[in-house]
Write a structure and sequence with these properties.
Layout: H1 5-33, H2 42-46, H3 51-66, H4 69-80, H5 86-104, H6 106-109, H7 113-121, H8 125-128, H9 135-145, H10 158-162, E1 166-168, H11 175-194, H12 201-215, E2 216-220, H13 223-234, E3 244-249, E4 252-254, E5 260-262, E6 272-273, E7 287-291, E8 294-298, E9 300-301, E10 305-310, H14 329-345, H15 356-364, E11 368-379, H16 381-384, H17 389-398, E12 399-407, E13 423-430, E14 441-447, H18 454-466, E15 470-471, E16 480-484, E17 487-496, H19 497-500, H20 513-522, E18 526-529, E19 533-537, E20 540-542, E21 547-549, H21 553-559, E22 560-563, E23 570-572, E24 589-593, H22 606-609, E25 614-619, E26 621-623, E27 631-640, E28 643-648, H23 653-663, H24 666-673, E29 677-680, E30 683-685, H25 688-692, E31 695-697, H26 704-717, H27 732-745, H28 751-759, H29 761-764
Parallel strand pairs: 1-2, 1-10, 2-3, 10-11, 12-14, 15-17, 23-27
Antiparallel strand pairs: 3-7, 4-5, 6-9, 7-8, 11-13, 12-13, 14-17, 16-17, 18-19, 20-31, 21-28, 22-24, 23-24, 25-27, 25-28, 26-30, 29-30
Helix pairs in contact: 1-4, 1-5, 1-7, 1-13, 3-4, 9-11, 9-18, 23-26, 26-27
Length: about 775
């Protein structure tokens, strides 16, 4: 029977990873041969006639007589599986020669080159959610998370460092652990220098061994990834022998005894795991832990941690439910059910709807010491998304979020290599036993230009740590630029943690400090202008106090079939920027009630769906840099697939006109965008629970004469062409919206605010 496309893809991935494992062992051998005369130089080994046999024999000798089983044993086993063919010998020789070229570029070996290649080869990354943290992002995150002044640890004292514990529960290829190791070494050198202590090679070697054997802890479900973590860490000092490394390959999927295992997620139920996965292929019945002499059957403990650093898998559980997507469907379903049971039984503050990233934060939290830290790479949806609300609740309850770093760089919204999704770097410190500290502040770094090299990341971290962030709250004014090499890289702001801990983290909603300040005051119904401070007030209410949002697209498809022929159920379908360019629109589709449920779905009753139709339509998702309107109005009630119908409680149709005008004005857009769920830069979504609480102008709070100004403006402009949001600074129709708002509310000119919003990368899609 021929293989399916999926099987072919998986076989190719397995072959690629086996090749990478062998190449990585070649690299380590080349490095080790420079330090240990017992190890044959790679070039000499490549000259052997029977290369495969010579490599297997020598790698066995290294494992048995020297050390480094974590690096060489898995590679040797992969080598042993290769067929006895001349093509294999030639392929190995070519691979070895390429490795020699890599070794000549020694700088590459210090920056997790193999990890970068690994994740390019891992075709199932989408389904595993294993997004590889870039080395610059890891460097930036760890330099800030381990800033010496934020810790009581005496970094100059090796015994103090030996008691420090760092873990990554989804260590992948070890990039974040490597960055932690390098930062701790840097902290030690700086602290020792300040105290006048000499820093010798012997001291640094001792520190390296301490970190390898005591400080660093890594966990992953892929043996190939843990193999690379071991070599990544060991390559920093390949000549140092170690007795053990606290790296654990934890099992995922249904085991031989029918037990369901969820990798590191199982730490929700136990502080120490006994697994059935043998990292090195020996078929052991217990946990496999990497030691200097190989993997041994043992438990895999998760100690109390000073720092947990993670870029956890965060594949979401919606849109086809890709949780555990690398495994067969029958196993995935069992695992998903098992996960739901664990989360419910333990009342865990995590949502699998957000993906495993939310769960991993909850897994780590109980193991963080009082005063310890989480350092995370997570989707930007963490700051705004409904699915991430439980994670924000966990952080609000037990932590103070100290630093949030967001990229507003249109060329790199992300901090991971193999994704373009918008991401955040977050550092949160666990509360101690004392007072919660209402004066605790959160620093938000809004990058205009993301970091792309490790050296640049060091400079950027230094600029961040030395800056005095501008305060958003209180009477705060001023701007704190983040500059490196004479180039402005972004701006830093701070805000009292209690002001955002129970809401969206809006200080990373925009790139510009003055625009954030406008947004901050708008939330309270106050108009702020740069250089002037508060200049006006308005009556705002939450959207859900004015009306009710209609059903989502799944419910629509469960109850109706969209058709072009006229029925009793009009609809507004799609959101094409070329077609939707006026406030007033007509239905462009009709709905036919279903008589039979779709396969795998339940039939929705029309009498429950249709009463939730509305005349106002608010965008469910948008490309802010191409589309024109957030809200449109229809002559009759309708449903939609990509718009939220809004049925107002008021029977006054003028209220609909006021809201349509407001939500497309500059001030309305600012508030609207603060509640977005970012996906990839300007590509955003608006979830019903978040949209329901967006502050909007209260039509009932307007005097009749002021309301008439807005209604007349709507009537005059309802058929006028509105340009894309990127052109709002010069769009005559949008300017007319703002003019009506400022006249009705007695505000000064809004031109400066509109220009700032138009220039922000989330709208423009262009760098500042």
């Amino acid at each position: 029977m021929p293989l399916t496309k999926a099987q072919v893809r998986r076989h190719r991935t397995a072959a690629n990873l086996a090749s990478l494992t062998i190449a990585n062992a070649f690299i380590f051998q080349a490095e080790l041969a420079e330090k240990d005369h017992r190890v044959i130089k790679l070039r000499k080994l490549l000259a052997k006639p029977d290369l495969r046999g010579a490599v297997i024999e020598h790698w066995k000798y290294i494992c048995d007589s020297i050390n480094y089983v974590p690096i060489f044993n898995l590679a040797r086993q992969a080598m042993e599986e290769l067929p006895e063919r001349s093509e294999v010998q030639e392929a190995l020789r070519q691979l070895g020669n390429h490795v020699l070229k890599i070794v000549e570029q020694r700088a590459a070996l210090r920056h997790d080159l193999m990890g970068r290649i690994y994740h390019r080869l891992l075709l199932e990354a989408k389904y595993l959610g294993t997004f590889y943290t870039s080395v610059p992002a890891a460097t930036l995150l760890l330099k800030i998370a381990l800033a010496p002044e934020e810790w009581d640890t005496n970094w100059a004292d090796l015994s103090a460092v030996e008691n420090f514990r760092v873990a990554d529960l989804a260590c992948g290829t070890g990039t974040l652990l490597m960055a932690a190791q390098q930062t701790i070494m840097d902290n030690h050198i700086r602290a020792s220098t300040r105290e006048g202590k000499p820093v010798s090679t012997e001291t640094l070697n001792s520190l390296h061994k301490i970190m390898m054997q005591a400080v660093l802890n890594g966990y992953d479900v892929l043996s190939s990834a843990v193999h690379l973590t071991a070599s990544t860490l060991a390559l920093l000092a390949p000549g140092i022998e170690f007795k053990r490394m606290n790296l654990h390959c934890v099992p995922l999927g249904e085991q031989a005894n029918r037990e369901i295992r969820l990798g590191s997620v199982d730490y929700l139920q136990s502080g120490s795991l006994q697994t059935q996965l043998d990292l090195m292929g020996g078929g052991g019945a217990e946990a496999q832990t990497i030691t200097g002499a190989g993997s041994v059957g043992t438990t895999a403990p998760l100690p109390e941690l000073d720092l947990c650093v993670m870029n956890p898998p965060f594949t979401r559980s919606v849109g086809g439910n890709l949780l555990f997507g690398s495994l067969p469907d029958d196993q995935r379903k069992k695992m998903q059910v098992h996960l739901r049971g664990i989360l419910a039984a333990a009342a865990v503050l995590a949502s699998s709807t957000a993906g495993l990233g939310s769960v991993f934060v909850a897994v780590a939290s109980p193991h963080i010491k009082s005063g310890g830290c989480l350092a995370l790479v997570l989707p930007a949806a963490l700051a705004f998304g409904v699915a991430w609300q439980k994670t924000r609740q966990l952080l609000s309850r037990d932590y103070v979020v100290k630093v949030i770093i967001a990229s507003h760089d249109p060329e790199r919204w992300n901090f991971s290599e193999n994704t373009s999704l918008s991401e955040l770097l977050v550092v949160a410190r666990k509360k101690g036993a004392g007072p919660s500290g209402q004066d605790e502040r959160t620093v938000c770094i809004n990058l205009w230009k993301n970091t792309t090299t490790p050296v640049d990341a060091l400079s950027l971290a230094d600029a961040v740590l030395k800056g005095t962030p501008a305060q958003l709250d209180g009477a705060g004014m001023g701007v704190c630029p983040i500059t490196t090499g004479g180039v402005k890289r972004g701006e830093a702001v701070s805000i009292a943690w209690p002001l955002i801990k129970d809401s969206q983290w809006y200080p990373v909603a925009f790139a510009q400090t003055e625009l954030l300040r406008v947004a901050h005051h708008l939330r309270s119904g106050v108009l702020y202008q740069a250089g002037k401070g508060p200049v006006g007030k308005m009556s705002l209410v939450q959207l859900n106090s004015l009306g009710k949002l209609g059903p989502d697209r799944r419910d629509i498809y469960d109850g109706f079939t969209p058709v072009d022929t006229k029925t009793a159920y009009p609809a507004f379908w799609s959101h094409n920027a070329e077609d939707v360019f006026t406030l007033e629109q007509d239905p462009n589709k009709y709905l036919n009630p279903r008589t039979k449920a779709m396969k795998g779905r339940k039939l929705r009753r029309v009498d429950l769906l249709w009463p939730r139709a509305g005349r106002l339509m608010i965008a469910e998702r948008m490309r802010l840099n191409t589309q024109r309107l957030t809200t449109i109005r229809l002559p009759a009630e309708a449903l939609s697939n990509v718009w939220w119908p809004l049925a107002l409680h008021s029977e006054d149709l003028d209220d609909e006109k006021v809201l349509a005008l407001w939500l497309n004005s500059t001030l309305g857009l600012i508030l609207f965008c603060m509640y977005r769920v970012p996906t990839e830069g300007p590509w955003v979504q608006f979830k019903k629970p978040s949209l329901s609480i967006v502050p909007v102008l209260n039509p009932a709070g307007l005097k009749a004469a002021r309301k008439k100004i807005l209604v007349d403006a709507y009537d005059r402009l309802s058929q006028a062409t509105v340009q894309p949001l990127t052109e709002m600074h010069s769009d005559k129709t949008r300017i007319a919206f703002d003019t009506a708002i400022q006249k009705a509310l007695g505000f000064p000119d809004l031109d400066d605010i509109r220009r700032m919003l138009a220039a922000d990368p989330i709208i423009s899609g262009r760098p500042l």
